[in-house]
Amino acid sequence: MDKIRVVGGRPLEGTVRISGAKNASLPDLCAALLTDEPVRLSNVPEVRDIRTMGRVLAAMGAEVDFRVGGVVDVKAGSLTSVEAPYDLVKTMRASVLVLGPLLAREGKARVSLPGGCAIGARPINLHLMALEKMGATIAVEHGYVEARADRLHGAEIYFDTVTVTGTENVMMAASRAEGVTLIQNSACEPEIEDLAQMLNAMGAKVSGAGTSEIRVEGVERLHGASHSVIPDRIETGTFVAACAIAGGEIEIRACRPQHLRAVLDKFREIGVRVEEGPDNLRIRAPRVIRPANVTTQPHPGFPTDMQAQFMTLMTQATGTSTITESIFENRFMHVAELSRMGASIAENGRVAIVSGPTALSGAQVMATDLRASASLVLAGLAAGGETIIDRVYHLDRGYYRIDEKLRGLGADIERLT
Ligand code: EPU
Fold first, then answer.
1. Residue 123 Cβ < 6 Å to ligand 1
2. Among the three residues 228, 252, 274, which one is the final residue of a domain in this structure?
3. Statement: residue 368 has pLDDT above 90
4. Do the strands 108-112 and 83-84 form a parallel or antiparallel pair, or are they unpaired?
5. Can you give the CATH number for the domain in which 282 is found?
6. Which of 21, 184, 335, 394 could form a disulfide with 373 if both were Cys (CB 3.0 to 4.6 A apart)?
7. Which residue's alpha carbon is at the smallest distance from atom 6 of ligand 1?
8. Cα–Cα distance between 180 and 216 in angstroms, integer?
9. How far, in Å, is the centroid of ligand 1 from the Cα of 122?
10. Model pLDDT for residues 26-59, shown as the tens digit of each residue
11. Is 188 tagged catalytic?
């Protein structure tokens, strides 16, 4: 199994290019199931979760062609199966995004129920409630969601918790349902807007994406389309944090600063110099990092997917920072590993109090999920000596060659295979 070795202490300089957003590409790939015509996606990041989604679609009989340079062609001509099997869903819970499209197109779907994961229980009850309101009959048997519907119909759906993939599943189902669907308290993430753009390019009638009320007028059929995926805002934020913690000055290209308003404001608050262009950022690390309080929230709030990286940064701030995780109940798994490197973090339920600055020292560490792994890479950049990060497959699920990109900025980092 690959490991990553980082030797801390080198400031970063140069330019890094951001890849396409994993969490936009995943629903976009599933949307291709809504038509039998060819769909072409570009700016898709070549990360492991995308390959896994390719396998999920291929298992249903779709032709999925990964081309060089982040282009993926999907043709779901006629489907041979409507099942997302346990073996795939257990490796990637986003596989549940096939549920809406399959129901809308085939009138049936059999999707393994994802179990809990490292960051929380993560139920899908809201996805199921919404699809039932749209006329689906749903049973959970033998660990599988068995869903059926002759033809889905429009409905008024209110989510009492904001759910990103739940909103996406309903948008896709509603795009081919009969009548109008209103999704209230919908997720507002940029990835939702990206999916709406893709669905509309396929002939759907989706409006309001990016706000908390989305309206979808169902159409009889959707057609093929080409769509370019938005840049990954979490990868962007991770590189801002990398520069802030390692020191130096970098330019981040091919990003979308307006998708990171809360994150960039927080970085400014702690002293990072951030200059924004329309699709690039210039970042200069502060000499002294100020502490800050952060609470994770649905978009446009501070994203939970940046919480671990920000916590690592706060270990280097002068003073006390409070970090509250309000989205997932168990997303502090990095705390123990950061503590092993010398951080001073008191954890109390969903609140972590970070006292800084503490000198970090390199250690052998191991991560349990994607963003926690990224936070350990950042810790390695600031630590004295060598840090070895185990279980790099977590990182590879969502970051395209993060080791190579950091090495391009002057970091002393390598992958041990
Ligand atoms: N929730 C329910 N019932 C549901 C659905 C969600 O109670 O039916 C709860 C969850 O347990 C959680 C909260 O609602 O407490 C929000 O979960 P959400 O459904 O929004 O999360 P998700 O759609 O499963 C996506 C991203 C995650 C990201 C979250 C929050 C994708 C593929 N995944 O997950 O990304 O953390 O939204 O922004 O889009 C990552 O990339 O590292 C990652 C985990």
1. yes
2. 228
3. no
4. parallel
5. 3.65.10.10
6. 394
7. 163
8. 6
9. 7
10. 999 999 999 999 999 999 999 999 999 999 999 9
11. no
